[in-house]
Structure formats: C-alpha cells, structure tokens
Write a structure and sequence with these properties.
Layout (H helix, E strand, L loop, with lengths): L1 H10 L19 H15 L8 H32 L10 H18 L11
Helix pairs in contact: 1-4, 2-3, 3-4
C-alpha cells in the first residue's frame, strides 16, 4: 500500500549508524561499550552500587531506549500539530506525521527484540 511504501522510504532516513564502517576508529562506541561506561559512572558516583548489576542494566536497556523513542514521538507529534495549524518552523514539517508512524514501528520492533523484564526479575 502507499502508506507502507511511504513508511519504508521514511525508515531509510532513520538508519542511524547502520552500514558505517570502522565505528571504533571514528570514536563511536558500540551499545555494550556505552552501557559499560554508564555502569562505571554509576559505580563511581555511588561506591556502594550493589543495588543493580551490569546485567540488570543491560536487561533494562530496551526500556530506556524505547522511552527515548516515546519522547521523540511526542516531539514529532508536536511538529505535526504545528504544521497542521500552519505555524510550523520548517517547510518539511508535514512529513512529521509519516515519521511518527515509522517511530512507532521501530518501538514495536525494539519491544520484540528487547522485552522489558518483569518486576520480579529486577532489583531496580
């Protein structure tokens, strides 16, 4: 359908770092390295950081990443509404509605690949 084709084209815009060679040579950390740095910062901040483990941090990464996408959806929705009222700050703001659909699809994929741990499994 036209919507699916539009979503597919729009998702090509959101490729992130996919396909960029030699990330470490460019100083770009991999996901696990970012989590390690973050965990080390937690341990340094709180010398008694035994309430959560590095594994728990990894388990909850999907939740926080999805929350970031949710925040972006709220921003995109605001852009779309301003465009609809005719007070958009960009000539391409009309595309925001299509972007919102792509972000929601990406959230669904993140939920499938990074399920949120049950409360029983977490000490957080």
């Amino acid at each position: 359908s036209a919507t699916m084709e539009s979503n597919s084209n729009m998702s090509m815009i959101i490729t992130g770092l996919k396909g960029i060679p030699n990330l470490s040579e460019r100083g770009i950390l991999l996901q696990n390295e970012v989590l390690e740095y973050y965990y080390c910062a937690l341990v340094l901040k709180d010398n008694n950081a035994t309430t959560s483990s590095f594994q728990e941090l990894k388990n909850w990464f999907g939740f926080y990443f999805i929350f970031l996408f949710f925040k972006n959806c709220v921003i995109v929705q605001g852009v779309a509404q301003r465009s609809k009222r005719g007070v958009a700050s960009s000539a391409i703001a009309d595309n925001a509605t299509q972007l919102l659909l792509v972000l929601v699809a990406m959230i669904n994929e993140l939920l499938r690949s990074n399920p949120i741990p049950s409360k029983k499994q977490s000490k957080l």
